Amino acid sequence: MNNAVQRKYDSRHYIIEKIDGKIVAFARPGRWHTTLTLRIASVFERFLKGKICKTYFETDVQLDENTTVVPDVIVVCDPNKKSNDGKKIIGAPDLIVEILSPTTLRHDKTIKKDLYEKYGVKELWLVSPLDEFIDVFLLDNNGKYYLNDSYGYYELDDTLDADEIANHTPYFTTSLYGDDLKIELKELFEGLKDY
Q: Quick one: which of 75, 77, 158, 173 is 20 to 30 A from 91 by CA?
């Protein structure tokens, strides 16, 4: 990124991305967003300790020469995708998590989702801290995303009908790791709005 852009959009105050050669800057996320990012990254970090796959958050991901994005959380299983300078990932991660904010919602659900599909990110999570849900998209054999499932967290004082209670799952698994990694929704969302 050139120096003029860095001066205009100080990275202490903005997330700076380059999409098809155009600079896009977003204000840094709020408390719920950053707390949820940390919780999700921590779940992956604990699970992947000692394994080839690694977890990163708010790391530059260079998809091509003209496109660099900054997902909230990524999992990379190919050590050759780490840049030599330690500053970015080059190529598509295996899994990307985007935490939705009012200012990035449209961008994350359309532009970035389309980019991740185009570059072959195997699994994408779109996570809403406000609504406490996770949509999990998987890449099919044709290189297109399909909604694998949606998971919502419900507190004890929420009103659920009988069908919702019967269909409610307090955890989910990520497709990259089969049933080995069960993620408790409570661990991610409980007390989040107290932050």
A: 173
d(CA 120, CA 19) in angstroms, rounded, equals: 16
d(CA 125, CA 100): 10
Is the Cβ–Cβ distance between 73 and 59 less than 8 Å? no
Which two three-digit tokens encode residue 47?
A: 């699970």
Find the angle CA(48)-CA(50)-CA(53) to the nearest 5 degrees. 45
Contact 100, 129 (CB under 8 A): yes
Which CATH architecture group holds 30-194?
Alpha-Beta Complex (3.90)
Per-domain residue ranges for the chain?
Answer: 30-194
Q: What is the pLDDT of residues 136-186, one digit of tens each?
A: 999 999 999 999 988 887 665 555 555 555 455 676 777 676 667 888 888
DSSP 1: -
CA–CA gap between residue 177 and residue 45 (Å, rounded): 13
* Tens-digit pLDDT profile for residues 53-81: 999 999 999 999 999 999 999 999 999 99
Which residues share a beta bridge with 76? 54
Contacts of 12 (CB under 8 A, 6+ apart): 28
| CB contact at 8 A, 92 and 64 | no
CA–CA distance from 26 to each of 70, 131, 169 (Å)?
11, 21, 34
Residue 36 DSSP class? H
